[in-house]
Amino acid sequence: MNQAEYKVGLVIYPEMTQIDITGPHQVFAFMPNTQIYWLWKKIEPVRSNDGLTIMPDTTFVDCPTLDVICVPGGPGQIDMMRDEQMLEFLQQQAKTAKYITSVCTGSLILAAAGLLQGYRAGCHWAFLEQLAMLGVEVSSERVVSDRNRITGGGATAGLDFGLVVVSQLCGEETAKMIQLLLQYDPQPPFNAGSPRQAGEDLVKQVKTFGKELIAASQARTKETAIKLKIAV
User: Fold this and answer.
1) CA dist list (Å): 83 to 42, 98, 140
2) Does the chain have fewer CB atoms within 10 Å around its N or its C terminus?
3) Over the stretch 181-192, which tens digit does the pLDDT of each residue have?
4) Which range of residues forms the domain containing residue 155?
5) What is the CATH classification number for the domain harbouring 191?
């Protein structure tokens, strides 16, 4: 078993989708010789979009040099895409991190920081076109690995994503052991977890349900593309 010591930073922010970050955390918590940091601007409770509150333990200013930096998605991503403290923190950590990563629409934040251009990356299926608007080569794979960028798809991909990251750092056998510890053996009750499987009607219903968030995110993405001087 790899005996290296790893520092993993889990970024949190108001109105994030908590499973995007708590899923990977559950996997990383079993990774040997690992220190996990919950990161935000201040040491104060951070409320997710579904009402779960998480207490950070380290500020951006006090954060050590990380081996892995992970950014979740969620409605709050819209504000974070133009939050200078967030973007500058990610840019600084990306200079030395072994892996720059995200789950769901966290990749839009990484792209807003200029950290995914020239890479393949993924996110929630409803936002792939927006990610492409930021100069990213998009993929609908559940987990996308391109050099030291690892990005997960929509919320539940966080577990798969976490196992991929562990396999890169500690080897496949350690990742398999964690998978077994978690008894991660997906057997969904319905075959509707992707647009291809769900079919047109259900996709339309989901897009209608999330139309305000999708539209607001698209407006912010266009604004960000202009800032990054990317032709939209």
Assistant:
1) 14, 24, 27
2) N
3) 999 999 999 999
4) 6-227
5) 3.40.50.880
Q: Is residue 232 part of a domain?
A: no
Local structure of 147: helix, strand or coil? coil
Is 46 within a domain? yes
* Segment holding 38, helix H or strand E: strand 34-40
Q: How far apart are CA 87 and CA 127, in angstroms?
A: 20
Residue 4 pLDDT > 90: no
Residue 222 CA to residue 232 CA, distance in Å, equals: 7
65 neighbors 37 (Cβ within 8 angstroms): no
Active site members = 104
Instruction: Give the predicted TM-score (pTM) of the model.
Output: 0.97
Return the sign of the alpha-carbon dihedral for residues 151, 98, 17, 213. negative
Query: Is 178 part of any domain?
Result: yes
Over the chain, what is the mean pLDDT?
97
Closest listed residue to residue 157, CA positions, set 30, 17, 20 = 20
Facing residues of 40 across strands? 59
| Residue 1 covered by a domain | no
pLDDT at 206 over 80: yes
Confirm if 17 and 72 have CB atoms less than 8 A apart.
yes
Chain segment 28-81, per-residue pLDDT in tens:
999 999 999 999 999 999 999 999 999 999 999 999 999 999 999 999 999 999
CB contact burial 185-194 (16+ within 10 A = b; e otherwise): eeeeeeeebe
